[in-house]
UniProtKB/TrEMBL annotation:
Stretch forming the signal peptide: none
Annotated coiled-coil segments of the chain: none
SUPFAM superfamilies given in the database record: Glyoxalase/Bleomycin resistance protein/Dihydroxybiphenyl dioxygenase (SSF54593)
Origin species: Streptomyces rugosispiralis
Alphabetized CDD domains for the sequence: VOC
Domain of life: Bacteria
Residue intervals of the Glyoxalase-like domain: 9-109
Annotated InterPro entries: Glyas_Bleomycin-R_OHBP_Dase (IPR029068), Glyoxalase_6 (IPR041581)
Protein name: Glyoxalase/bleomycin resistance/dioxygenase family protein
Amino acid sequence: MHRSRVYAVLIDTPEAEVARATAFWSAALGVTALPFPPEPQFTTLHEALPGLVTAVQAVDDAPRIHLDFETDNVEAETARLIALGAERIARWQECRVLRVPGGHLVCVLPVESDPEAFRAQANVWP
């Protein structure tokens, strides 16, 4: 048995466009953009989507939006999503990057949120 939930919505933006994209999304959503010092490629859009982390992420790839799933068992959650039709694309630090049916990307990562909030909000999988 393991648990998982959608943790974050990331707006992947080519590095050269990050400042403009961050300004746009911050104004469009009416929120404050805050740097995330531990990982400088992320700029948090504070409270844009209540209950979810929302951020602009500088990437060296095409623009897109992707979801992050947090889980108490990265291998089990990765296997669950693969069984549903996802395919492995890459690994970055502890994160597993998957391409899901339809072509979108999702990341599977260890629990990042408050453990109590995670337990209360996560789905439980056999």
